[in-house]
Amino acid sequence: FDVYGAPILGNDDQLKGVVLVFHDITELKKLEQARKDFVANVSHELKTPVTSLKGFTETLLEGAMEDPELREKFISIIAKESERLESLIHDLLELSKIEGSQFILNMDEVNLETLIEDVFLMLGEKAALKNITFHKKFIGNGTIYADSQRMKQILINLINNAVMYTPEQGEVTVRVREQTETVILEVQDTGIGISKKEIPRIFERFYRVDRARSRNSGGTGLGLAIVKHLIEAHKAKMSVESEVGKGTTFRISFYKQLLNEKREE
Ligand code: ADP
């Protein structure tokens, strides 16, 4: 608590009483701590690829360059680490944009089917490398009121995770189901799953269930934090169902009310 005190004086300047104001600063302290943790995490996350870039370039310069096998190996590590650094900076900038006061959504009628097809095309090669098949299932026409670019970003992050955390020969199914008041979008995989205990934490920035696995697959640990913000900005609701070893389903409900209001305008 922060405490402020002030005397209450009578007409004769005699002390009549004291006002004490107790200000609960627990929330402020928590925010301050969260900010500090975030800065520490960002620094650590940036430092890891930079240290490795520096190490491998130095080793190359000190002679490893002469050995064609080592040269090939080190240069491909350098390429991979630079890519990681690039995605990390990209995601950090995205997150700060989305959280910024200037952030506005460009809302319009959006057809989910076209967006899903675009994202399947984009991630097709990555899925094919693991023999993962994509499926798309529709009940209703799947038109929602949303920012199409941001909606695509949500789909990319969720479908990319589904591919990343699903072993070879798995399946990723995107379902769209129109109901009376909502349009439900589901991204389901047959992957490694997430335990009940971890589910509430996966939306935190930089939280990963398995750090090494996320790093190796090029994850930044920011994808779901970005998704969470974007879903909130769309006034939609998200839930997660998962079973370890069986798979995970991310479910988003969009309110049709918003689309109806737009059409009545
Ligand atoms: P990352 O870049 O590490 O994937 P995200 O914010 O996208 O970061 O996800 C946070 C963590 O949630 C991941 O590291 C992973 O442990 C877990 N996760 C996300 N999506 C899935 C999924 N479809 N199946 C299993 N685990 C997942």
UniProtKB/TrEMBL annotation:
Subcellular location: Cell membrane
Residue ranges constituting the Histidine kinase domain according to the UniProt record: 41-258
Name of the protein described by the UniProt record: histidine kinase
Source species: Evansella vedderi
Residues of the full protein shown: 330 to 594 of 594
